């Protein structure tokens, strides 16, 4: 049983919750700051993926780990159902990333590659998606393509990390992060040059997973790019969410809709 919170504790918890879930400008800026941190940390992890784990890199990882841990603790603190919160995918990802940041100096570069799972946190929050739809017109017009591209890149990074951790040094030609990235991309695109091969059951199952899921994500991105774009604008009559960018009336119920545009010269 959790001890009952005092009035001051509850007040602080409510203020933190408003930062993560509120609609104020302050809350929006806070969520954008978290998004920028996620993006910068992912870029840093990518840039240092092939670097040896020296003292400077370990110190930088420790600093990032502190921020991730603080964010993790705050989200857990404000959660109404903490057990359910801990079961969410992005929370499990945070735990894995934190574990990799702590374990990498002792277990080596292969485990450090799991830091790239942090990419799965991009655009994960419902509240952040609402902020982007409201504030960024490019995102609102091309949401499907942007989200599909992010999902594909995230999948590539995540599978590269898993390939390196599970099979690095155990398959011919698969020794570094670059080798794992090369294998993942050639497998996903079904190119298969044959210079890196999986010779074990585990490796071949990984390759099958990369092909099946990766091709699906790639086709989803192609569909989002080449099919006519839809704008997310909820119809007040029937609730239809997707409309053509130049739509004046809802195709489902005929009600007038007002989609924000920049006008014409």
Q: Could you explain how this protein is built, in words?
A:
The chain is mainly α and 265 residues long. The chain has helices at residues 7-21, 25-47, 55-78, 82-86, 89-107, 109-112, 126-135, 137-141, 143-167, 177-188, 201-226; strands at residues 231-232, 242-243. α1 (7-21) packs across α3 and α9 packs across α10 (177-188). The termini are far apart. It holds the Pfam family Ion_trans_2. The chain crosses the membrane at residues 32-51, 57-78, 90-112, 145-166, 178-198, 204-222.
* Strand element count: 2
| Unreliable stretches covering 5 or more consecutive residues | none
Give the name of the CATH architecture of the largest domain.
Up-down Bundle
Name of the top-level CATH class of the largest domain: Mainly Alpha
- For the biggest β-sheet, the strand order reads 1-2
Largest sheet: 2 strands, antiparallel
By helix and strand content, what is the structural category? mainly alpha
- Total count of domains: 3
Q: Approximately how much helix is present in the residues?
A: 55-70%
Shape: flat
Topology order in helix (H) and strand (E) letters:
HHHHHHHHHHHEE
Transmembrane segments: 32-51, 57-78, 90-112, 145-166, 178-198, 204-222
Main location: membrane
Keywords: Ion channel, Ion transport, Membrane, Potassium, Potassium channel, Potassium transport, Transmembrane, Transmembrane helix, Transport
Domain Potassium channel: 153-223
